[in-house]
Amino acid sequence: MLIDLKRGEVKHSDIGQMNMYLNYFSKEENVEDDKEPIGIILTAEKDHVMVEYALGSITNNLFVSKYQLHLPDREELENKLKDLLG
């Protein structure tokens, strides 16, 4: 798993760079029976439309997500889990 932490807004060039790293890692670092690497870009700001188009034809497992500076309190986390689990 390759992780890139961006302090500002993610750019299309950041996504292309991570895709290149994933291609390199898959070809040069993976050994037999390894699964394909996963790339995660954590960013302070995320333009959903730009990310959608930048990831459009990439076949690698590459994800972009906005991070939070503060963790939610316990009650908020429990409520989110209940919502997710139905």
CATH domain topology: Trna Endonuclease, Chain: A, domain 1
How large is the count of helical segments?
Answer: 3
Overall geometry comes to: globular
Largest sheet: 3 strands, parallel
What is the top-level CATH class?
Answer: Alpha Beta
Tell me the number of structural domains.
Answer: 1
- Low-pLDDT windows of residues: none
Kindly state the number of beta strands.
Answer: 3
- The ordered string of helix (H) and strand (E) elements is EHEHEH
Radius of gyration: 16 Å
Mean pLDDT: 86
The CATH level-2 architecture is identified as: 3-Layer(aba) Sandwich
Strand content: 25-35%
Give the terminus-to-terminus CA distance: 29 Å
Q: Which percent bin holds the helix content? A: 40-55%
- Specify the structural class: alpha/beta
Strands across the major sheet, in which order?
Answer: 1-2-3
Characterization of the model:
With 86 residues, the chain is an alpha/beta fold. It has a single domain, classed as Trna Endonuclease, Chain: A, domain 1 (3-Layer(aba) Sandwich). It has helices spanning 12-29, 48-55, 74-85; strands spanning 2-9, 38-45, 61-66. The protein has a three-stranded parallel β-sheet, covered by helices on one side. Strand 1 (2-9), helix 1 (12-29) and strand 2 form a beta-alpha-beta unit. The longest helix has 18 residues, at 12-29. The mean pLDDT is 86.
Summarize this structure as a short list of keywords or feature phrases.
86 residues, alpha/beta, Trna Endonuclease, Chain: A, domain 1, three-stranded parallel β-sheet, 3 strands
Short overview:
The chain has 86 residues and is an alpha/beta fold. 44% of the residues lie in helices and 26% in strands. Helix 2 links the parallel strand 2 and strand 3.
